[in-house]
Amino acid sequence: MNYGLYINGKWVKSTSDETFESVNPATEKSIGNFAAGNELDAKKAVDAAEEAFEKWSSTPAPKRGEILLRAAQLLKENKERLARLETIEMGKILEEARGDVQEAIDITEYMAGEGRRLFGNTTPSELPNKFCMTVRRPIGVVGVITPWNFPIAIPAWKMAPALVCGNTVVFKPASDTPLCAIEYVKILEKAGVPKGVINMVTGSGETVGSAIVKNKKIRALSFTGSRDTGDWITKNAGIKKISLEMGGKDGIIVMDDADLKLAIDGVIWAAFATSGQRCTAASRVIVHSSIKEKFVHELVIRTNRLRLGSGLKSTTDMGPLINEAAVRKSETYTQVGRNQGARMLCGGVRLPGRGFFFKPTIFENVTIDMKISQEEIFGPVLSIIEFNKIDEAINIMNSIEYGLSSSIYTKNIDMAFRAIEKIDAGITYINSSSIGAEVHLPFGGVKQTGHSREGGITGIDEFSEIKTVYVDYSGKLQKAQIDNRK
User: For 2-246+450-469, CATH number?
Assistant: First the structure.
């Protein structure tokens, strides 16, 4: 089946008249052919969004929120269908795909409520008979570029706040999951989003993505993806409001007093859920030396029990990687880890036959200077690093360029709060896995992870401008900061 672009309220062919294929990563069977948009398609989408902006931004925010609330209801009604589609196109197991759609439901409901808030602030003036406040204003046309690993949730995390704030959107989804993006846009269309308010152009980052980034009519960009692409965006976007979330090299500290079963449950979930293809996935476990042997022994046993296969099967624990390149990347890092002296305890190979399956892999005897403990792999490859004191563990945690998510397992409140204070990360979990963001709280990181905070009120901050308003009803010229004291 052939699928088109969505521009100005219509599904259209690309002016390139070219297509690309999306495949099921578990079977390598074709899902469909999708329009390969180009620079002209991106320009048309931006122009349509610009034309629609005035009317949409003038629509009362509560009315915009009502449309989002209808979208949330439609997502609920279509949750199982969308989850199964996501499993087929992206590969994650059905339970996780349902969670992805639920995230989209949750953030859309939350942002619908913001249509009746969009709070500003009031504050006293330093002068008499003068009133001061701030109000929120939409930014304009927003470019949204999303990855394939959460192909419904992440677009919703970005577009729901963008829309309720009164912006119009040009959306470029990942080329590995275009059908999920199309179905999400259809939900918004059915919910009543007017024509031109949302425009979607599928295609490569080199053509469509670049055209969106460089277009001067785009007033803001929201991007989730690789650090290299984020760096390129920063250098080429011009004067725009830019929101970047660029991955992580997340870690879990396991103290000597930790509940080992709970910690192992959390590590397996963090390292191998979505086959390690999460920016919050734990690819490093920093384990106290006194419990390391027992911990690693139980972890390897549990890991070897994980069942790989189609995410549609209830017996499957872990699905495929997204494509052949992802498999090769995990293979390469596995070999690099062995070459640099790490000891592989399990996994390290792809499954024979069709599909992009790679066995969950664990290394021990890992040091902080090894590539497998420094670089984001985005696959099911876990490094075990040993420590003796909490400060050493925190230094290991902070020894990377990223700073997204982190976790510590301990029953000691002092250790927990030292981790909260000293770990350089946007998120820290105590006695919980490194994954599990909730939509009403900020999500984002520090250092090379980026600088955005999506979710909750910070999502509104990302997609709105603050205007300061002064109302002087004194009837005379008053001069702030001018010393008129007698």
Answer: 3.40.605.10
| Residue 312 one-letter amino acid | L
Domain 250-430 has CATH 3.40.309.10: yes
Distance separating alpha carbons of residues 323 and 92, to the nearest angstrom: 12
Catalytic residues: 245, 279
Alpha-carbon distance of 61 to 114, in angstroms, equals 8
Cβ–Cβ under 8 Å, residues 233 and 244: yes
**Does pTM surpass 0.85?**
yes
Domain borders along the chain are 2-246+450-469, 250-430
Segment 334-393, tens digit of pLDDT: 999 999 999 999 999 999 999 999 999 999 999 999 999 999 999 999 999 999 999 999
Element (H, E) at 380: none
Nearest CA to 25 out of 252, 316, 320, 304 is that of 320
Q: Which of 173, 177, 149, 179 is nearest to 159 (CA)?
A: 173
pLDDT digits (tens, 9 = 90+) for 144-173: 999 999 999 999 999 999 999 999 999 999
> 419 φ, ψ to 5°?
-65, -45
Nearest to 225 by CA among 301, 276, 277: 277
